[in-house]
Amino acid sequence: MGVTIGKQTKLLVMLMIMFFLTVPASAAQEKQEKVPVLINFKEKTDTELVKAHGGNVKHEYTIIPAVAAELPPQAIDALSKNPKIDFIEPDGQAQILADEIPWGIARIDATAAQSAGVTGNGIKVAVLDTGIDYNHPDLKANYLGGYDFVNADNDPMDDHSHGTHVAGTVAALSNDIGVLGAAPQAGLYAVKVADSSGSCSYSNIIAGINWAVNNNANVITMSIGGTASSSTLQNACNNAYNNGVVLVGAAGNSGGAVIYPAAYYSVIAVSATDSTNTKTSWSCYGPQVEFAAPGSSIKSTMPDGLYGYKSGTSMATPHVTGAVALLMSTDIAGTVHDTNGNGKWDPAEVRLRLQSTATDLGASGRDNYYGYGLVNAYAAVRDLSSTPVDDPVVTPPESSTPVVMYVGELSLEQQSKVSGKNTFGWAVATVQVVDADGKTIPGASVAGSWSGLTAAAVSGTTDANGVVVFTSAQVKKPKGTLTFTVTGITCDEYAYDPTQNAYSAKSVTF
């Protein structure tokens, strides 16, 4: 096989390879630039194999069989053909998401939860950000340690301010000074993945998730993100979720589609509201949004013992994180909410409780702007022994009329490789099936067809995220159009309505 690179970035990496192969030898020797990549192995990682191809290993992960490395461009194709390798993709870039914020703590009723004796005690929150000023008088007592993946040391001091601000909203102390956090007795891990400019690589985010899982964090909060999807990052989030960690992520500040990692099903995506409970103009939105929270002019802790205001979905996210910490510090054992009977809050149980107690905003029910609504910390921790609200995630409503489903997202990515003197091209179609509330539907059977450069009828079943992927046959020396069309969807208790599809077909031209 040729180079396996994540979707939209495939062509870019190939161009980079061509560039490095065509520069004069003297220039190449002077620069010796290497491409940052994420290398996924089929089974165990093999750092010596990477080094043998001239690579520098940056991180070796334990929650997924992958490493972050820098490779010479010409080595990518050779290494990808090794039978130990599953796929290689570029190391994406993410940014912190802030402008300039503690009315928000009162708005989500965190103070009422604290008055009821629920403070987040015993819960460990990993803040993946620019670090934390762990000497701040409003944070110091809750600091549990951490790691700096930017400078590769054990001193995750904040050299920006963003991470300190996020940490304060989560867990600033109730100490009669400064501000009050949502969960003032929760422990804080400072996991520095972003530098002093607010930039961070996906590989550092994955390393931060890896560290948090290995250090028994209960919650990971990520007020960071990028626009490109990464299979490696998604796998890391999914594995952390499956290990019992709740992940919370910022939806983004561009006013467009939800960014990554918040857009992954295993991450709770948070949009931002202002003081009137209205989604801010800059907050990203879409079917992935699960909750809304205050994100405009939020006051919180700043480095050097100071306080200041910031705005962004970065500021909304720690409000939800704090609510999660409050809920997880309560005793679920023996209640109807402990659906698997293990005596502890699992991610799915946390999400269900927060969904069923959120204050509905916008259109009735879940919507793309506010998700299930404004997170309500006090409602979530109150009357836990009572019967829960009907599961809004898994159980379709009882009705003689089937629930409507349709294609919520359809993307088509062009792929190509060079083998010998020939170029081969193909396409990858990704289909997401959702219901009328924007909830993804696992287990749906999707039928489709390829037409144009190659023709075939295909079918597949959506995964836990409501997604199914189809890959076309490879075409030698492609020249023309390749189209994928969704021809039908079936699922028990659902009725397919193609008139509501975001797209029923998409094409790419070679």
Describe this structure in words.
Keywords: Hydrolase, Metal-binding, Protease, Serine protease. The structure is a single chain. This protein has 510 residues and is an alpha/beta fold. It folds into three domains: 7-91, Alpha-Beta Plaits, CATH 3.30.70.80; 95-381, 3-Layer(aba) Sandwich (Rossmann fold); 403-509, Immunoglobulin-like (Sandwich), CATH 2.60.40. The chain contains twelve helices and 25 strands. The strands form six sheets. Strands 7-8-6-10-12-13-14 form a seven-stranded parallel sheet, sandwiched between helices. Residues 1-9, 15-30 and 388-400 have low confidence and may be disordered.
In which order are the strands of the major sheet placed? 7-8-6-10-12-13-14
**Level of helix content?**
10-25%
Largest sheet: 7 strands, parallel
Q: Say how many strands there are.
A: 25
Please identify which CATH superfamily of the largest domain we are dealing with: Peptidase S8/S53 domain
Q: Using the coordinates shown, work out and report the CATH topology of the largest domain.
A: Rossmann fold
Range of strand content = 25-35%
Poorly predicted runs are: 1-9, 15-30, 388-400
Structural class: alpha/beta
Enumerate how many helices there are, as a single number: 12
